[in-house]
Amino acid sequence: MKTPIYDFVKRYAASDVSRFHMPGHKGESFLGCEALDITEIDGADVLYSADGIIEESERNASALFGSAHTFYSAEGSSLAIKAMLALAVKGFKGDKGGAGVNGFKGDNCGSGVKPVVLAGRNAHKAFIYACALLDIDVKWLYPQNGGHLCSCLISPADVEKALCGENFCAVYITSPDYLGNIADIGGIAKVCKAKNVPLLVDNAHGAYLSFLPSSLHPIALGADMCCDSAHKTLPVLTGGAYLHISPATDERYVSGARNALSLFASTSPSYLILQSLDLCNRYLADGYKEKLSACVKRVEELKAVLNEKGFVTEPSEPLKLTVNAAKSGYTGKELAEKLRAYNIECEFADDTFLVLMISPANRIIDFDRLRQAFSELPVRTSLMSENDTFFLDNCEQCMTVREAIFGESEMVAVENAVGRICGTPTVSCPPAIPIVVSGERISEKAVKLFKKYGIDKISVVLE
Fold this sequence. Notes:
Layout lengths: L3 H10 L39 H13 L3 E5 L2 H15 L25 E5 L4 H10 L2 E5 L14 H8 L6 E5 L10 H10 L4 E4 L15 H4 L3 E4 L1 H4 L7 E5 L5 H14 L6 H15 L2 H22 L10 E5 L7 H9 L7 E2 L3 E5 L6 H13 L24 H6 L2 E5 L30 H9 L4 E5 L2
Parallel strand pairs: 2-3, 2-4, 4-5, 5-6
Antiparallel strand pairs: 1-7, 6-7, 8-10, 9-10, 11-12
């Protein structure tokens, strides 16, 4: 497969041109990558009005993922999330009939009806910020049987029930979630299509899902739009991501996508990131499915080793190994620290879980170290308690997300925040999932969860 972005930059780097353009390093080596770090010079195309080498590279990615068009982001899925929501708002008519998934019969500008999105509660804070910027209200979908901060297992029936009698600009879910759970995208997509509401999926952790023997990628399963953080599971530099538009949805989502992306994006996207996205196309086209299949098999074998030893692993998407550390007698943080003694660094750990993210780029020695570590660590008595708090539900919304984020606020100790209204969400990344959302009242239960995640201070709306 051709790599037009990479090829252009490589030729330019070798040309010995005098660089009287940005960046200021002029191609001279400080980190070592500067020769390949360029800007939008003649022939390099422009990301948000692409009609040259970037457009060609994106078409290659579109063919690989089976999308109507796959757009590049050099600012992660955070940018793609904002763009998806902007497109959904533009397609929202606002009357009871709704514009529908194939909308654009009108937009909500001047309609007097504020757009509302139906969203799974485990949304990344990038979604919250996007709602604030676009002045979107949110109705939250909560799991039936509680859950974990990172997980919100909702069914098509949950979505169908929530959609009855209300008019939403979109349904928004996160799948896979941080613990590796995959939602029933196909079932939820059918419900959304029947209700004429677009389905948007934060697939940040699942770019590789398109290349399994039976694709589990949201676009293949019926989502209208989704974002992938290519850098999370593919050999792409941090910040490289995709916005995918389904071939089954309105073509005006495609025609409006670059404007929606540029609404929030830097006008100076990293060409290092764009080159890595471009080169990834060749990697995906050249034997990646076979590499992925072999890697999935290694992960399955590793899970079997852990389970045989007595460690509890959770069901998850194929490239995550999620250990229920608490059921195995550890906190996730304690287990992560023990793995560091074996030269292993995990993706995420809290009081309950340890999450390891794996890809075909992992070496055999990486798997060997994991086997050795878990073979030498004893399984202990479970630390789980029925009274453990992992999730908040039915939080009281006192003002809109936008009002809370852009209103006057102050930082207070969490123990002094009970009864106050949350301003800007406070949660680290990972997992970047707000415990209390902007505009919600903070409860005693929320304070316990803040402390569990090491949050000592929180932004609250000024009274």
